Amino acid sequence: MIKRLKKGYLQWRCRRGTKELDVVLSQFLDEQYDSLTDAELVEFDTLLNSQDTELWYWLSGQQQPECAALQAVVAKINAKNK
């Protein structure tokens, strides 16, 4: 039950200022939620604290986050989008 509430919370947080980010983040969450570890879910939640411009640069491969844990989450998202 708690995990479902958490998914709903994360789905809400995936709503961004651009449709492109909405689609990429929401699709990743929908497809990967059940296979992500608790630690990965925490890092995904942390990723969602980032500004849209940062997210766009990271998810488009133009830049990398400084934090190694965020790099891992970004790499997982990008792997699903290729």
TrEMBL record:
BP term (GO), one: succinate metabolic process
Main location: cytoplasm
Record-linked InterPro entries: SDH, SDH_sf, SdhE_FAD_assembly_factor
Annotated keywords: Chaperone, Cytoplasm
One family name in Pfam for this protein: Sdh5
Coiled coil: none
GO cellular-component term (any): cytoplasm
Presence of the UniProt keyword Chloroplast in the record: no
TM stretches of this protein: none
Compartments (UniProt record): Cytoplasm
Protein name per Swiss-Prot or TrEMBL: Succinate dehydrogenase flavin-adding protein, antitoxin of CptAB toxin-antitoxin
Organism in which the protein naturally occurs: hydrothermal vent metagenome
